[in-house]
Amino acid sequence: MAGWQNVSYELLPYHAFGKSKYEALGRPYPMGEAALQDGCMKKLQMLLESKNPILNN
After folding, report:
1. Average pLDDT of span 1-10
2. CA 38 to chain centre
3. 53, pLDDT greater than 80
4. Which of 3, 17, 29, 50 could join 22 in a cystine, given CB atoms 3.0 to 4.6 angstroms apart?
5. pLDDT tens-digit map of 31-51
6. Mean of all residue pLDDT scores within the chain
7. Residues with Cβ within 8 Å of residue 11, at least 6 apart in sequence
8. Phi then psi for 23, rounded to 5 degrees?
9. How many angstroms from the chain centroid is the CA of residue 48?
10. Considering Cα of 34, then 40, then 46, then 50, what sign does the dihedral take?
11. 28 close to 34: Cβ distance less than 8 angstroms
């Protein structure tokens, strides 16, 4: 992320706050029971913080 000194970010885990709205409308919730695997957010944070991220793996 060289050259991005003025960029800030915040990783947020997935949430299902909209699920009840779909249920109230009688519609299926398109994300189902989606969830991140254990440790995924930590790995993403480490990738973004590294000086030489390998994004193609």
Report:
1. 67
2. 13
3. no
4. 29
5. 888 888 888 888 888 888 786
6. 79
7. 41, 44, 45, 48
8. -60, -40
9. 12
10. negative
11. no
